[in-house]
Amino acid sequence: MRFLHLADLHLGKQLNGFSLAEDQAYILKQIVALACEHHVDTVLIAGDIYDRALPSADAVELLDTFLTDLSAAGINVVAIPGNHDSAQRVAYGSALLAAQNIYLAKPYTGTLCPIPFTDEYGDVIIWPIPFMRPAHIRPYHSDGEFGSNYSAALETMLATAPFDLHVRNIALVHQLIVSGSLSPEVSDSEITLGTLEAIDSSVLDKFDYVALGHIHRPQRIGRDTMRYAGSPLKYSASEARYDKSAVLVDLKEKGDITCTLLPLVPLHDVRVITGPLHELVAPKIVQTGDAHDYIYAQITDDTLPLDTQAELRLAYPNLIGLEHRPASRSSDTFEPLVLQTTQARDPLALFEQFFLEQNQRELTDDERALTVVALSESREPKN
Question: Hey, what CATH class is 2-263 in?
Answer without folding.
Answer: alpha beta
